[in-house]
Amino acid sequence: MGKYSEMSRLALEYLGGIGNINHVTHCATRLRIDVVRTSIINMEALKKLSGCAGVINKQHQIQIIIGPNVNDAYNDFIDVSKWKEGGNVGEKVEEEDNDTPHNTTYYLNKFGNFVAPIFMPVVPAMIVGGMILAIRNLLMNYFGMDINSGTANVLLSIFQAGFTFLPIYIGYTLASQLKMQPIMGALLGAVLLTERINGVPGLSFLGIDIPQVSYDSTILPVILGVFFMFYVDKILKKIIPEYLIYFVKPLLTIAIVVPVQLIILGPFGTLLSDTIGNFCIWLGDALGFISQPILAAVYPYMVMLGIDKAISPISIHLIATVGYNSVTGTMGFISNLCIGATALAVATSVRNDKAKKGLFASFGVTALCGVTEPAFYGCLISRPKVLIGTAMGAISGGLVAGILGLRTYVEGGCPGLLTFLFFVDKSGSLHYVFIAAIVAAVSISVTFVTTRIVLTVETKSKLKDKNSSMIKAS
Protein backbone atom coordinates (compact mmCIF):
# COMPACT_ATOMS: atom_id res chain seq x y z
CA MET A 1 0.00 0.00 0.00
CA GLY A 2 1.42 3.35 -1.04
CA LYS A 3 0.96 6.68 0.70
CA TYR A 4 -1.72 7.70 -1.79
CA SER A 5 -3.41 4.32 -2.27
CA GLU A 6 -6.47 5.12 -0.17
CA MET A 7 -6.77 8.56 -1.74
CA SER A 8 -6.55 6.91 -5.18
CA ARG A 9 -9.27 4.38 -4.33
CA LEU A 10 -11.66 7.10 -3.23
CA ALA A 11 -10.71 9.38 -6.14
CA LEU A 12 -11.49 6.58 -8.60
CA GLU A 13 -14.91 6.13 -6.98
CA TYR A 14 -15.70 9.86 -7.00
CA LEU A 15 -14.54 10.18 -10.63
CA GLY A 16 -17.17 7.68 -11.75
CA GLY A 17 -15.01 4.58 -12.06
CA ILE A 18 -12.43 3.41 -14.56
CA GLY A 19 -14.91 3.55 -17.41
CA ASN A 20 -15.16 7.32 -17.07
CA ILE A 21 -11.40 7.86 -17.56
CA ASN A 22 -9.77 8.58 -20.91
CA HIS A 23 -6.22 9.45 -19.94
CA VAL A 24 -4.08 9.84 -16.82
CA THR A 25 -0.91 11.91 -16.52
CA HIS A 26 0.62 14.51 -14.23
CA CYS A 27 2.61 17.74 -14.25
CA ALA A 28 4.88 19.15 -11.55
CA THR A 29 2.20 19.33 -8.86
CA ARG A 30 -1.10 18.07 -10.29
CA LEU A 31 -2.58 14.69 -11.13
CA ARG A 32 -4.36 15.26 -14.46
CA ILE A 33 -7.20 12.87 -15.30
CA ASP A 34 -9.18 13.20 -18.55
CA VAL A 35 -12.77 12.08 -18.08
CA VAL A 36 -15.68 11.27 -20.38
CA ARG A 37 -18.55 12.68 -18.34
CA THR A 38 -18.19 15.44 -15.79
CA SER A 39 -21.81 15.19 -14.70
CA ILE A 40 -21.26 11.96 -12.73
CA ILE A 41 -18.20 13.25 -10.82
CA ASN A 42 -18.54 14.05 -7.13
CA MET A 43 -16.47 17.23 -7.05
CA GLU A 44 -17.21 18.09 -3.43
CA ALA A 45 -16.01 14.68 -2.25
CA LEU A 46 -12.86 14.98 -4.39
CA LYS A 47 -11.99 18.31 -2.77
CA LYS A 48 -12.14 16.69 0.69
CA LEU A 49 -9.72 13.87 -0.15
CA SER A 50 -6.85 13.44 2.29
CA GLY A 51 -3.62 14.50 0.58
CA CYS A 52 -5.45 16.72 -1.92
CA ALA A 53 -4.79 20.47 -1.84
CA GLY A 54 -7.54 21.32 -4.30
CA VAL A 55 -9.39 20.19 -7.44
CA ILE A 56 -9.80 21.99 -10.76
CA ASN A 57 -12.21 21.01 -13.54
CA LYS A 58 -10.86 22.11 -16.93
CA GLN A 59 -12.79 21.00 -20.03
CA HIS A 60 -13.18 17.32 -19.15
CA GLN A 61 -9.86 17.19 -17.34
CA ILE A 62 -9.89 16.89 -13.56
CA GLN A 63 -6.72 18.24 -11.97
CA ILE A 64 -6.11 16.99 -8.43
CA ILE A 65 -3.51 19.20 -6.75
CA ILE A 66 -1.00 17.10 -4.80
CA GLY A 67 2.25 19.08 -4.63
CA PRO A 68 5.85 17.90 -5.14
CA ASN A 69 4.92 14.25 -4.39
CA VAL A 70 2.60 14.09 -7.39
CA ASN A 71 4.66 11.33 -9.02
CA ASP A 72 3.98 9.05 -6.03
CA ALA A 73 0.28 9.87 -6.23
CA TYR A 74 0.29 9.11 -9.96
CA ASN A 75 1.94 5.72 -9.48
CA ASP A 76 -0.46 4.79 -6.68
CA PHE A 77 -3.45 5.86 -8.78
CA ILE A 78 -2.28 3.77 -11.72
CA ASP A 79 -1.70 0.81 -9.39
CA VAL A 80 -5.08 1.10 -7.67
CA SER A 81 -7.17 1.86 -10.76
CA LYS A 82 -5.37 -0.64 -13.05
CA TRP A 83 -5.71 2.00 -15.72
CA LYS A 84 -3.65 1.62 -18.88
CA GLU A 85 -3.65 3.47 -22.18
CA GLY A 86 -6.08 1.96 -24.65
CA GLY A 87 -7.02 -0.93 -22.40
CA ASN A 88 -9.32 0.25 -19.63
CA VAL A 89 -11.17 -2.38 -17.65
CA GLY A 90 -14.65 -1.75 -16.34
CA GLU A 91 -17.94 -0.62 -17.76
CA LYS A 92 -17.75 2.15 -20.30
CA VAL A 93 -20.04 5.13 -19.82
CA GLU A 94 -21.77 6.95 -22.64
CA GLU A 95 -19.85 10.02 -23.67
CA GLU A 96 -21.64 13.31 -23.08
CA ASP A 97 -21.63 16.23 -25.48
CA ASN A 98 -19.08 18.90 -24.70
CA ASP A 99 -20.98 22.17 -24.66
CA THR A 100 -18.00 24.20 -23.50
CA PRO A 101 -17.67 27.38 -25.59
CA HIS A 102 -14.67 27.21 -27.92
CA ASN A 103 -13.17 30.54 -26.97
CA THR A 104 -9.54 31.60 -26.50
CA THR A 105 -9.39 30.17 -22.98
CA TYR A 106 -10.72 26.85 -24.23
CA TYR A 107 -7.96 26.50 -26.83
CA LEU A 108 -5.27 27.67 -24.40
CA ASN A 109 -6.44 25.01 -21.97
CA LYS A 110 -6.45 22.37 -24.69
CA PHE A 111 -2.95 23.35 -25.74
CA GLY A 112 -1.69 23.44 -22.15
CA ASN A 113 -3.22 20.05 -21.36
CA PHE A 114 -1.57 18.56 -24.45
CA VAL A 115 1.81 20.17 -23.85
CA ALA A 116 2.17 19.36 -20.14
CA PRO A 117 2.66 15.57 -20.51
CA ILE A 118 5.24 16.19 -23.25
CA PHE A 119 7.51 18.68 -21.52
CA MET A 120 6.96 18.22 -17.79
CA PRO A 121 8.54 14.72 -17.62
CA VAL A 122 11.68 16.19 -19.21
CA VAL A 123 11.97 19.13 -16.80
CA PRO A 124 13.63 17.18 -13.92
CA ALA A 125 16.51 16.20 -16.22
CA MET A 126 16.98 19.83 -17.23
CA ILE A 127 16.81 21.02 -13.61
CA VAL A 128 19.43 18.49 -12.53
CA GLY A 129 21.64 19.30 -15.51
CA GLY A 130 21.40 23.05 -15.01
CA MET A 131 21.97 22.98 -11.26
CA ILE A 132 24.87 20.52 -11.59
CA LEU A 133 26.53 22.91 -14.05
CA ALA A 134 25.99 25.79 -11.61
CA ILE A 135 27.57 23.78 -8.78
CA ARG A 136 30.50 22.79 -11.03
CA ASN A 137 31.15 26.40 -12.00
CA LEU A 138 30.92 27.57 -8.40
CA LEU A 139 33.41 24.89 -7.32
CA MET A 140 35.86 25.92 -10.05
CA ASN A 141 35.50 29.69 -9.53
CA TYR A 142 35.40 29.87 -5.76
CA PHE A 143 36.82 26.61 -4.42
CA GLY A 144 39.74 25.96 -6.77
CA MET A 145 38.50 22.78 -8.45
CA ASP A 146 40.59 21.93 -11.54
CA ILE A 147 38.61 22.23 -14.77
CA ASN A 148 40.32 19.06 -16.06
CA SER A 149 39.72 16.99 -12.93
CA GLY A 150 37.64 13.83 -12.98
CA THR A 151 35.03 15.42 -10.73
CA ALA A 152 34.63 18.39 -13.08
CA ASN A 153 34.23 16.08 -16.07
CA VAL A 154 31.65 13.89 -14.34
CA LEU A 155 29.61 16.96 -13.37
CA LEU A 156 29.86 18.32 -16.91
CA SER A 157 28.69 14.96 -18.28
CA ILE A 158 25.57 15.09 -16.11
CA PHE A 159 24.80 18.57 -17.45
CA GLN A 160 25.33 17.44 -21.05
CA ALA A 161 23.12 14.39 -20.53
CA GLY A 162 20.32 16.63 -19.28
CA PHE A 163 20.37 18.81 -22.41
CA THR A 164 22.15 17.11 -25.31
CA PHE A 165 19.67 14.23 -25.51
CA LEU A 166 16.52 16.37 -25.46
CA PRO A 167 15.49 15.05 -28.92
CA ILE A 168 15.33 11.54 -27.45
CA TYR A 169 13.42 12.62 -24.33
CA ILE A 170 10.94 14.78 -26.27
CA GLY A 171 10.55 12.13 -28.96
CA TYR A 172 9.58 9.58 -26.31
CA THR A 173 7.10 11.76 -24.42
CA LEU A 174 5.48 13.19 -27.56
CA ALA A 175 5.00 9.74 -29.09
CA SER A 176 3.44 8.61 -25.81
CA GLN A 177 1.10 11.60 -25.78
CA LEU A 178 0.07 10.80 -29.36
CA LYS A 179 -0.66 7.23 -28.20
CA MET A 180 2.09 5.70 -30.34
CA GLN A 181 4.82 3.36 -29.20
CA PRO A 182 7.02 5.79 -27.20
CA ILE A 183 10.23 4.00 -28.16
CA MET A 184 9.64 4.94 -31.81
CA GLY A 185 9.75 8.64 -30.96
CA ALA A 186 12.88 8.06 -28.88
CA LEU A 187 14.44 6.13 -31.77
CA LEU A 188 13.86 9.03 -34.15
CA GLY A 189 15.51 11.40 -31.67
CA ALA A 190 18.44 9.01 -31.28
CA VAL A 191 18.90 8.83 -35.04
CA LEU A 192 19.31 12.61 -35.16
CA LEU A 193 22.05 12.47 -32.51
CA THR A 194 24.15 9.68 -34.01
CA GLU A 195 27.71 10.69 -34.86
CA ARG A 196 27.20 9.81 -38.55
CA ILE A 197 24.33 12.33 -38.91
CA ASN A 198 24.52 14.99 -36.20
CA GLY A 199 26.37 18.00 -37.64
CA VAL A 200 28.04 15.92 -40.37
CA PRO A 201 28.64 17.74 -43.72
CA GLY A 202 28.27 16.25 -47.20
CA LEU A 203 25.55 13.68 -46.43
CA SER A 204 23.06 12.46 -48.99
CA PHE A 205 20.28 9.87 -49.27
CA LEU A 206 19.49 8.25 -52.62
CA GLY A 207 21.33 11.09 -54.31
CA ILE A 208 19.45 13.83 -52.42
CA ASP A 209 21.64 16.16 -50.39
CA ILE A 210 21.06 16.29 -46.63
CA PRO A 211 21.69 19.73 -45.05
CA GLN A 212 24.30 19.85 -42.29
CA VAL A 213 22.43 20.32 -39.01
CA SER A 214 23.48 19.93 -35.38
CA TYR A 215 20.61 18.44 -33.38
CA ASP A 216 22.14 18.65 -29.89
CA SER A 217 19.62 20.09 -27.40
CA THR A 218 17.03 20.82 -30.11
CA ILE A 219 13.28 20.43 -29.67
CA LEU A 220 11.35 21.50 -32.76
CA PRO A 221 13.01 19.15 -35.30
CA VAL A 222 12.03 16.01 -33.40
CA ILE A 223 8.56 17.42 -32.66
CA LEU A 224 7.92 17.89 -36.38
CA GLY A 225 9.31 14.43 -37.07
CA VAL A 226 7.16 12.67 -34.48
CA PHE A 227 4.00 14.40 -35.72
CA PHE A 228 4.84 13.23 -39.24
CA MET A 229 5.48 9.75 -37.84
CA PHE A 230 2.04 9.82 -36.21
CA TYR A 231 0.29 10.22 -39.57
CA VAL A 232 2.54 7.67 -41.27
CA ASP A 233 1.77 5.25 -38.45
CA LYS A 234 -1.99 5.75 -38.85
CA ILE A 235 -1.84 5.02 -42.59
CA LEU A 236 0.34 1.94 -42.16
CA LYS A 237 -2.03 0.54 -39.51
CA LYS A 238 -4.81 0.54 -42.09
CA ILE A 239 -2.93 -1.21 -44.88
CA ILE A 240 -0.63 -3.70 -43.13
CA PRO A 241 -2.16 -7.10 -42.21
CA GLU A 242 -2.43 -7.60 -38.46
CA TYR A 243 -0.14 -10.65 -38.45
CA LEU A 244 2.68 -8.56 -39.98
CA ILE A 245 2.12 -5.29 -38.13
CA TYR A 246 4.47 -5.94 -35.21
CA PHE A 247 7.52 -6.36 -37.46
CA VAL A 248 6.66 -4.51 -40.67
CA LYS A 249 5.06 -1.31 -39.36
CA PRO A 250 8.06 -0.08 -37.32
CA LEU A 251 10.41 -0.87 -40.20
CA LEU A 252 8.35 0.96 -42.82
CA THR A 253 7.67 3.85 -40.44
CA ILE A 254 11.35 4.54 -39.88
CA ALA A 255 12.19 3.95 -43.55
CA ILE A 256 9.68 6.64 -44.53
CA VAL A 257 10.12 9.12 -41.69
CA VAL A 258 13.92 9.31 -41.35
CA PRO A 259 14.69 10.53 -44.91
CA VAL A 260 11.91 13.13 -44.75
CA GLN A 261 13.14 14.17 -41.31
CA LEU A 262 16.76 14.63 -42.42
CA ILE A 263 16.05 16.29 -45.76
CA ILE A 264 13.05 18.51 -44.92
CA LEU A 265 11.68 18.52 -41.38
CA GLY A 266 14.96 18.64 -39.46
CA PRO A 267 16.45 21.63 -41.32
CA PHE A 268 13.10 23.45 -41.31
CA GLY A 269 12.63 22.80 -37.59
CA THR A 270 16.13 24.11 -36.89
CA LEU A 271 15.48 27.27 -38.93
CA LEU A 272 12.17 27.79 -37.16
CA SER A 273 13.82 27.16 -33.80
CA ASP A 274 16.53 29.75 -34.48
CA THR A 275 13.91 32.28 -35.59
CA ILE A 276 11.82 31.78 -32.44
CA GLY A 277 14.90 31.99 -30.23
CA ASN A 278 16.13 35.19 -31.86
CA PHE A 279 12.67 36.76 -31.60
CA CYS A 280 12.36 35.90 -27.91
CA ILE A 281 15.78 37.34 -27.15
CA TRP A 282 14.93 40.49 -29.12
CA LEU A 283 11.64 40.75 -27.21
CA GLY A 284 13.44 40.41 -23.89
CA ASP A 285 16.06 43.01 -24.84
CA ALA A 286 13.68 45.47 -26.46
CA LEU A 287 10.67 45.19 -24.14
CA GLY A 288 12.16 43.68 -20.99
CA PHE A 289 11.52 46.82 -18.98
CA ILE A 290 7.83 46.66 -19.91
CA SER A 291 7.21 42.94 -20.43
CA GLN A 292 8.59 41.64 -17.12
CA PRO A 293 6.10 43.38 -14.78
CA ILE A 294 3.19 42.49 -17.07
CA LEU A 295 4.20 38.82 -17.35
CA ALA A 296 4.88 38.58 -13.62
CA ALA A 297 1.47 40.06 -12.78
CA VAL A 298 -0.39 37.77 -15.18
CA TYR A 299 1.42 34.56 -14.26
CA PRO A 300 -0.44 33.81 -10.97
CA TYR A 301 -3.72 33.84 -12.85
CA MET A 302 -2.29 31.60 -15.55
CA VAL A 303 -1.46 29.13 -12.78
CA MET A 304 -4.96 29.48 -11.38
CA LEU A 305 -6.49 28.75 -14.80
CA GLY A 306 -4.08 25.88 -15.43
CA ILE A 307 -2.70 27.38 -18.64
CA ASP A 308 0.80 28.18 -17.36
CA LYS A 309 2.10 25.00 -19.01
CA ALA A 310 1.30 26.51 -22.39
CA ILE A 311 4.44 28.68 -22.17
CA SER A 312 6.79 25.88 -21.05
CA PRO A 313 7.95 25.10 -24.62
CA ILE A 314 9.26 28.68 -24.93
CA SER A 315 11.21 28.42 -21.68
CA ILE A 316 12.65 25.01 -22.47
CA HIS A 317 13.60 26.10 -25.98
CA LEU A 318 15.44 29.20 -24.76
CA ILE A 319 17.36 27.38 -22.03
CA ALA A 320 18.29 24.54 -24.38
CA THR A 321 19.38 26.67 -27.34
CA VAL A 322 20.38 30.11 -26.06
CA GLY A 323 21.45 28.99 -22.59
CA TYR A 324 19.32 31.41 -20.58
CA ASN A 325 15.81 32.84 -20.42
CA SER A 326 15.26 36.56 -20.00
CA VAL A 327 11.66 36.53 -21.26
CA THR A 328 9.53 34.05 -19.33
CA GLY A 329 12.11 32.59 -16.95
CA THR A 330 11.51 34.89 -13.98
CA MET A 331 7.70 34.83 -14.10
CA GLY A 332 7.29 31.76 -11.92
CA PHE A 333 9.95 32.92 -9.45
CA ILE A 334 8.28 36.29 -8.83
CA SER A 335 4.78 34.82 -8.87
CA ASN A 336 5.54 32.14 -6.29
CA LEU A 337 7.17 34.63 -3.93
CA CYS A 338 4.21 37.00 -4.18
CA ILE A 339 1.66 34.26 -3.57
CA GLY A 340 3.66 33.14 -0.52
CA ALA A 341 3.92 36.68 0.85
CA THR A 342 0.17 37.18 0.35
CA ALA A 343 -0.61 34.01 2.29
CA LEU A 344 1.71 35.12 5.12
CA ALA A 345 -0.02 38.50 5.24
CA VAL A 346 -3.39 36.76 5.49
CA ALA A 347 -2.01 34.53 8.27
CA THR A 348 -0.84 37.53 10.32
CA SER A 349 -4.30 39.07 10.03
CA VAL A 350 -6.12 36.04 11.46
CA ARG A 351 -7.34 36.56 15.02
CA ASN A 352 -8.65 34.04 17.57
CA ASP A 353 -7.99 30.98 15.41
CA LYS A 354 -4.49 29.62 15.98
CA ALA A 355 -5.10 26.51 13.84
CA LYS A 356 -6.12 28.52 10.77
CA LYS A 357 -3.33 31.03 11.39
CA GLY A 358 -0.74 28.25 11.49
CA LEU A 359 -2.23 26.56 8.42
CA PHE A 360 -2.13 29.76 6.35
CA ALA A 361 1.43 30.47 7.55
CA SER A 362 2.54 27.00 6.43
CA PHE A 363 0.87 27.63 3.04
CA GLY A 364 2.86 30.87 2.77
CA VAL A 365 6.20 29.28 3.60
CA THR A 366 5.53 26.43 1.17
CA ALA A 367 4.73 28.93 -1.59
CA LEU A 368 7.89 30.93 -0.90
CA CYS A 369 9.75 27.67 -1.46
CA GLY A 370 8.02 27.18 -4.82
CA VAL A 371 4.79 25.19 -4.32
CA THR A 372 1.86 27.61 -4.50
CA GLU A 373 -1.26 25.48 -4.98
CA PRO A 374 -2.03 25.02 -1.25
CA ALA A 375 -1.75 28.79 -0.70
CA PHE A 376 -3.67 29.70 -3.82
CA TYR A 377 -6.59 27.30 -3.41
CA GLY A 378 -6.56 26.92 0.36
CA CYS A 379 -6.19 30.58 1.31
CA LEU A 380 -6.22 33.22 -1.43
CA ILE A 381 -8.89 32.23 -3.92
CA SER A 382 -11.63 32.59 -1.28
CA ARG A 383 -10.32 36.09 -0.50
CA PRO A 384 -10.09 37.65 -4.00
CA LYS A 385 -9.28 41.13 -2.71
CA VAL A 386 -5.91 40.01 -1.34
CA LEU A 387 -4.87 39.19 -4.92
CA ILE A 388 -4.47 42.95 -5.32
CA GLY A 389 -1.43 42.61 -3.07
CA THR A 390 -0.17 39.69 -5.16
CA ALA A 391 -0.50 41.74 -8.34
CA MET A 392 1.20 44.82 -6.88
CA GLY A 393 4.12 42.77 -5.61
CA ALA A 394 4.45 40.97 -8.94
CA ILE A 395 4.42 44.22 -10.89
CA SER A 396 7.04 45.73 -8.58
CA GLY A 397 9.27 42.66 -8.69
CA GLY A 398 8.85 42.38 -12.46
CA LEU A 399 9.75 46.03 -12.91
CA VAL A 400 12.99 45.56 -10.96
CA ALA A 401 13.72 42.34 -12.87
CA GLY A 402 13.19 44.14 -16.18
CA ILE A 403 15.35 47.13 -15.25
CA LEU A 404 18.22 44.99 -13.93
CA GLY A 405 17.92 42.38 -16.69
CA LEU A 406 17.33 39.29 -14.55
CA ARG A 407 17.95 35.97 -16.31
CA THR A 408 17.42 32.37 -15.31
CA TYR A 409 19.76 29.60 -16.46
CA VAL A 410 17.74 26.58 -15.31
CA GLU A 411 14.27 25.71 -16.57
CA GLY A 412 11.35 24.30 -14.67
CA GLY A 413 10.78 23.01 -11.19
CA CYS A 414 9.15 25.14 -8.51
CA PRO A 415 11.25 28.34 -8.36
CA GLY A 416 11.43 30.10 -5.01
CA LEU A 417 13.76 30.92 -2.16
CA LEU A 418 15.40 27.49 -2.38
CA THR A 419 16.34 27.76 -6.05
CA PHE A 420 18.79 30.66 -6.29
CA LEU A 421 21.16 28.31 -8.14
CA PHE A 422 18.82 28.80 -11.11
CA PHE A 423 20.42 32.25 -11.51
CA VAL A 424 24.10 31.21 -11.55
CA ASP A 425 25.32 31.90 -15.08
CA LYS A 426 27.43 29.61 -17.27
CA SER A 427 30.69 31.08 -16.01
CA GLY A 428 29.73 30.57 -12.37
CA SER A 429 29.17 34.28 -11.71
CA LEU A 430 26.74 35.26 -8.93
CA HIS A 431 25.73 38.49 -10.67
CA TYR A 432 22.18 37.37 -11.43
CA VAL A 433 21.86 35.67 -8.04
CA PHE A 434 22.28 39.06 -6.37
CA ILE A 435 19.74 40.58 -8.77
CA ALA A 436 17.34 37.72 -7.96
CA ALA A 437 17.78 38.45 -4.24
CA ILE A 438 16.88 42.11 -4.82
CA VAL A 439 13.86 41.11 -6.90
CA ALA A 440 12.78 38.67 -4.19
CA ALA A 441 13.07 41.30 -1.45
CA VAL A 442 11.02 43.82 -3.44
CA SER A 443 8.38 41.26 -4.46
CA ILE A 444 7.88 39.88 -0.95
CA SER A 445 7.90 43.21 0.90
CA VAL A 446 5.58 45.06 -1.50
CA THR A 447 3.17 42.12 -1.60
CA PHE A 448 3.09 41.72 2.18
CA VAL A 449 2.59 45.42 2.93
CA THR A 450 -0.03 45.92 0.19
CA THR A 451 -1.97 42.84 1.28
CA ARG A 452 -2.00 43.99 4.89
CA ILE A 453 -3.31 47.40 3.79
CA VAL A 454 -6.04 45.72 1.72
CA LEU A 455 -7.03 43.51 4.68
CA THR A 456 -7.02 46.47 7.09
CA VAL A 457 -9.23 48.56 4.80
CA GLU A 458 -11.57 45.61 4.33
CA THR A 459 -11.81 45.00 8.08
CA LYS A 460 -12.55 48.66 8.80
CA SER A 461 -15.19 48.69 6.06
CA LYS A 462 -16.91 45.62 7.51
CA LEU A 463 -16.79 47.11 10.99
CA LYS A 464 -18.26 50.37 9.73
CA ASP A 465 -21.07 48.52 7.96
CA LYS A 466 -21.75 46.49 11.11
CA ASN A 467 -21.95 49.63 13.26
CA SER A 468 -24.26 51.29 10.75
CA SER A 469 -26.54 48.27 10.81
CA MET A 470 -26.63 48.29 14.63
CA ILE A 471 -27.49 51.99 14.71
CA LYS A 472 -30.32 51.50 12.21
CA ALA A 473 -31.60 48.50 14.20
CA SER A 474 -31.67 50.53 17.40
From TrEMBL:
It is a multi-pass membrane protein. Pfam families: PTS_EIIB (PF00367), PTS_EIIC (PF02378). Residues 5-87 form the PTS EIIB type-1 domain. This is Phosphotransferase system, EIIC. GO terms for biological process: phosphoenolpyruvate-dependent sugar phosphotransferase system; trehalose transport. The keyword Repeat does not apply. Its main location: membrane. PROSITE patterns: PTS_EIIB_TYPE_1 (PS51098), PTS_EIIC_TYPE_1 (PS51103). GO terms for cellular component: plasma membrane. Residues 113-466 form the PTS EIIC type-1 domain. One of its GO terms (molecular function) is protein-phosphocysteine-trehalose phosphotransferase system transporter activity. The active site is at C27. It is found in: Cell membrane. Keywords: Cell membrane, Kinase, Membrane, Phosphotransferase system, Sugar transport, Transferase, Transmembrane, Transmembrane helix, Transport. The keyword Kinase applies. InterPro entries: Glu_permease_IIB, PTrfase_EIIB_Cys, PTS_EIIC, PTS_EIIC_1, PTS_IIB_1, PTS_Sugar-Specific_Components. The chain crosses the membrane at residues 114-135, 155-175, 214-232, 244-264, 276-301, 322-347, 359-380, 387-410, 430-455.
